Amino acid sequence: MLKNLKENYGTFGFITTVWDYLQSYLLCCAVDDNGWSAWRNSSWFQDENSMLLDDLQLIPATNPMFKYVPKTCCYRKLDYLTRQLTDEYKNLPRCQNWQYGPPKFDNGAHNDAIYYGGCLGTIQAYIRRFSFWIALFGFSCLFFLITSTIIGCVTLCEIK
């Protein structure tokens, strides 16, 4: 998962879309908890922060256009009537480039505009939460198939 993020995010459209969907709807950032530093080693980071005329040189980190994480790592505003997340972000500049803490530094002042949880832990928690029901559904289908096969065989034998 980490290798995929570092090498393919921003390069391949489908992979970028999947990562953006994961981060937006699972409310997570990168792979591990507090893992936004993984973006610094990604091809997306190099492409996003490269100079317009010189791809090998990065824009200065003090530049407000410098981005440490994609916008899908950032908190979105909540529509209080529908209780749905909107497409507007809480504080995009603070999320992507904040001088006092994450994502610029691994620790520091708390940044309330960025997701601290990693996607891997969120997916694992989701699977653990629903694994009983998924297994129950699977075994129910298996039981139904075996029962219907036995009934079909018995019916076929009685007809002959």
UniProtKB/TrEMBL annotation:
The chain crosses the membrane at residues 132-157. It is a multi-pass membrane protein. Coiled coil: none annotated. It is found in: Membrane. GO terms for cellular component: membrane. InterPro entries: Tetraspanin/Peripherin. Its main location: membrane. Keywords: Membrane, Transmembrane, Transmembrane helix. It holds the Pfam family Tetraspanin. This is Tetraspanin. It comes from Hymenolepis diminuta (Rat tapeworm).
